[in-house]
Design brief:
Number of helices of chain B: 11
Shape of chain A: globular
Structural class of chain A: alpha/beta
Number of domains of chain B: 1
Number of strands of chain B: 0
Distance between the termini of chain A: 75 Å
Helix content of chain A: 40-55%
Shape of chain B: globular
Radius of gyration of chain A: 22 Å
CATH class of chain B: Mainly Alpha
Order of helices and strands of chain A: HEHHEHEHEHEHEHEHEEHHEEE
Order of helices and strands of chain B: HHHHHHHHHHH
CATH superfamily of the largest domain in chain A: Periplasmic binding protein-like II
Oligomer: heterodimer
Largest sheet of chain B: none
Number of helices of chain A: 11
Number of domains of chain A: 2
CATH architecture of chain B: Orthogonal Bundle
Strand content of chain B: under 5%
Structural class of chain B: mainly alpha
Largest sheet of chain A: 10 strands, mixed
Largest interface: A-B, 34 and 29 residues
Radius of gyration of chain B: 20 Å
CATH superfamily of chain B: MetI-like
Distance between the termini of chain B: 43 Å
CATH topology of chain B: MetI-like fold
Chain lengths: 282, 228
């Protein structure tokens, strides 16, 4: 009885150690590898899964990414935990570079933000300007869902509220800070039949999941206001702050993203027949 | 509600068709949980045994501290470990951030109090006559300890199962330290968080069922061990 138990335990230990040792080996392999921090919007829409294999094919550089809010992505860059950033918060990006953390900022593409809400539009925002729409939502005390996670989208939303000239809503009962990603926030908006601001890419994705624009209970109500532009840029890290970050590989990545091939691929990336991003690298 | 049924069907499909991304997450979960469980057992068993077996001043407060550590929030451990292994942290040179090794460090901290507290409790609950009997039979010190360990083997097994369950299902450490990187540090739980964030609830349910299936398999093999 005793030996059988020991043998079983040994076999189990061996079975578990095999995947373990292979895990360690994988981590130690030296290769050209780039670590990127990016925002949930590029990852959730599937753009990176579509684009990055092409990058790896063209450059022989392996790229891995972690997708978080822009706030955390920039923080990871400051602390040199990644090599390159793909983010969309121009003001914060400039501060990042001025602070000595970032070196080059390269504009790659944009999509735009839209304000969405229930088809019935209880606050009457349809076709209004952003400023008017937000004032109407405030007056009607209609539910407004905010990302509330310091992401690029959240930062953008806060600047929109600032444009109305009144204090930023915070504890108001109709202002709900989800603290989650964009699609989760849109789903929460649908649950509460409220309003929210989202990038168009994620909204298209949401409609696709609902089985098309007609089936989705939330509709685009405010769009095409100049203030709603959402610019994505690649940021390299300043080698002075992060000597170990792979600056040379980050530059190759930045050039590739701004290059003709990637720009064409971005233009051709579609969901439900609708383009998600507009390339605009100079 | 309908996404639960859709998730159930999808879970079968994922497992049967051997979906690459799912298997990658399954393997990452098994690797990292097993590693964490073994490390926490290596550290927690001896300490738990000492705590349960010997009486010494300060034992009660130590047990209280240990029991409190059972309530360590995973995101908090994740942040602490991140602070240490971030490239500017004191252990930055080990390049553990965004690796399974980094997650294992955090999960070991998570499971260590579980193993220690459960082991100590089992050893304490041992028949007090046992020690006396062994002494009266003229057993040596080493003999007494090995016999006691053998007596509490099921309790230790239970500690292992509890530790495994705790590390396999946590999401805070894996997300913060691992970064949820596809093909590398994406575990089942971070994948569930991602799918939920994307609004793909059925995918999340499917992955949750996959996780439960693994837990079931682990417990099944352990109960087999117990029968032996």
């Amino acid at each position: 009885m005793f030996p059988i138990t020991i043998i079983t335990a040994l076999i189990m230990a061996i079975i578990t150690m095999v995947p373990l040792s292979s895990a360690m080996a994988q981590d130690n392999k030296l290769e050209k590898k780039l670590m990127m921090a990016t925002t949930t919007s590029t990852d959730n829409t599937g753009l990176l899964d579509y684009l990055m294999p092409e990058f790896e094919k063209d450059t022989d550089i392996k790229i891995e990414w972690t997708s978080t809010g822009t706030g955390k992505a920039l923080e990871l860059g400051k602390r040199c935990d990644v090599d390159v950033l793909l983010v969309h918060a121009p003001d914060a990006e400039r501060l990042f570079i001025d602070g000595g953390f970032g070196k080059d900022r390269r504009e790659i593409m944009y999509n735009d933000f839209v304000i969405i809400g229930p088809a019935a539009d209880p606050a009457g925002t349809r076709g209004k300007s952003v400023k008017e729409a937000l004032e109407l939502i405030r007056e009607a005390k209609a539910f407004f869902l905010s990302r509330g996670d310091d992401s690029g989208t959240h930062k953008k939303e806060k600047t929109l509220w600032q444009e109305t000239g009144k204090a930023l809503p915070e504890k108001e009962s109709w202002y709900l800070q989800a603290g989650q990603g964009m699609l989760a926030t849109i789903n929460a908006t649908e649950e509460r039949m409220g309003y929210t601001m989202t990038d168009r890419g994620t909204f298209i994705k949401y409609m696709a999941q609902k089985g098309g624009a007609d089936q989705a209970p939330l509709k685009v109500l405010v769009e095409s206001d100049a203030i709603l532009l959402n610019q994505y840029s690649v940021l390299t890290l300043d080698p002075k702050n992060c000597p170990k970050a792979k600056y040379d590989l980050a530059l190759i990545y930045s050039d590739w993203m701004a290059g003709e091939k990637a720009q064409t691929l971005i233009r051709e990336f579609r969901l439900l027949g609708q383009p998600l991003f507009t390339p605009n690298a100079k | 509600m309908d996404f639960i049924l859709a998730g159930l069907i999808q879970a079968m499909e994922l497992l049967v068709t051997g979906d690459d991304a799912t298997w990658s997450a399954v393997m990452a979960t098994i690797k990292v949980s097993t590693c964490s469980m073994l490390m926490s057992m290596a550290a927690g068993l001896p300490l738990g045994f000492l705590l349960g077996y010997f009486d010494f001043p300060g034992k009660r407060p130590l047990r209280t501290v240990l029991d409190t550590l059972l309530a360590l929030p995973t995101v908090f451990i994740g942040l602490l470990v991140y602070a240490f292994i971030s490239s500017q942290g004191p252990l930055g040179d080990f390049n553990l951030l965004f690796t399974l090794g980094g997650i294992a460090v955090g999960q070991t901290i998570l499971a260590f109090p579980v193993v220690t507290a459960l082991t100590a409790a089992t050893v304490e609950g041992m028949d007090p006559q046992l020690k006396l009997t062994l002494v009266s039979l003229g057993a040596g010190r080493r003999n007494i300890i090995t016999t006691c360990l053998w007596e509490v083997r099921f309790g230790i097994l239970a500690a292992a199962v509890a530790a495994y369950g705790r590390v396999m299902t946590e999401v805070g450490i894996s997300m913060m330290v691992g970064g949820n990187i596809k093909w590398h540090t994406r575990t089942i739980t971070t994948a569930i968080a991602l799918e939920t964030g994307k609004g793909m609830f059925a995918n999340g349910i499917a992955l949750g069922l996959v996780l439960i299936t693994i837990a079931f398999a682990v417990n099944l093999s352990l109960s087999f061990l117990r029968k032996q």
